[in-house]
Amino acid sequence: MTTTAVTTTTGNRTLPALNRPVAVLGGVLAALVANLLIWGIGELAGGTFTTTDGDQVLDVAPGGVILMSTVPLLIGMTVAVLVSYLWTGVLRVAAVIGSLLSLATIWMTLTSGFDTVSTVALSLMHVVLVPVLVIALEGVRRGITAK
């Protein structure tokens, strides 16, 4: 009887360059879809998503939802992923800072004079960004440091 031993070695592998943009764009798309869903539910619940600034009525949806769900997330995650080529630790730092900023900016929603339904929906949209940031950036980090 003959036995064969198979030895495998695992070393550090890097996430292929294509997967980093996919992680960023996937995270942004997930946040956008979730926030548009929240906006739709808010609309059905009677939210107006309007506020007044002096004598001007400002409507923040759906354009504001799309813009504020994508641009800050896209910029922040892109910067973090680019820096991760030099320092992998930035991904966890970015997840924490991005999450804190997302939660801290709920204050702006609370003080903007939206109706209750709109305030709750817009605040939830800020909260949605936290798991998106953490999952996407942690996925990139694990792909870089997988053994």
Task: Explain what you see.
It is a single chain. The protein is mainly alpha-helical. It has one domain. The chain is built from 5 helices and 2 strands, in the order H-E-E-H-H-H-H. It has helices spanning 19-44, 63-84, 90-104, 106-110, 116-145; strands at 50-53, 56-59. Strands 1-2 form a two-stranded antiparallel ribbon. It is elongated and about 85 Å long. The two termini are 34 Å apart.
List keywords for this structure.
single chain, mainly alpha, two-stranded antiparallel ribbon, 5% strand, elongated, DUF6069
Structural class: mainly alpha
Low-confidence stretches: none
> How widely separated are the two ends?
34 Å
Indicate the radius of gyration in whole angstroms: 20 Å
Mass-distribution shape = elongated
Query: Strands of the largest sheet, in order across it?
Result: 1-2
In helices, the fraction of residues equals 55-70%
Tell me the number of structural domains. Answer: 1
Average pLDDT confidence is 90
Number of beta-strand segments: 2
Beta-strand residue percentage: 5-15%
Q: What order do the helices and strands follow?
A: HEEHHHH
What's the tally of helices? 5
Summarize the biggest pleated sheet: 2 strands, antiparallel
Protein name: DUF6069 family protein
Transmembrane segments: 22-41, 61-83, 90-110, 116-137
InterPro entries: DUF6069 (IPR045713)
Keywords: Membrane, Transmembrane, Transmembrane helix
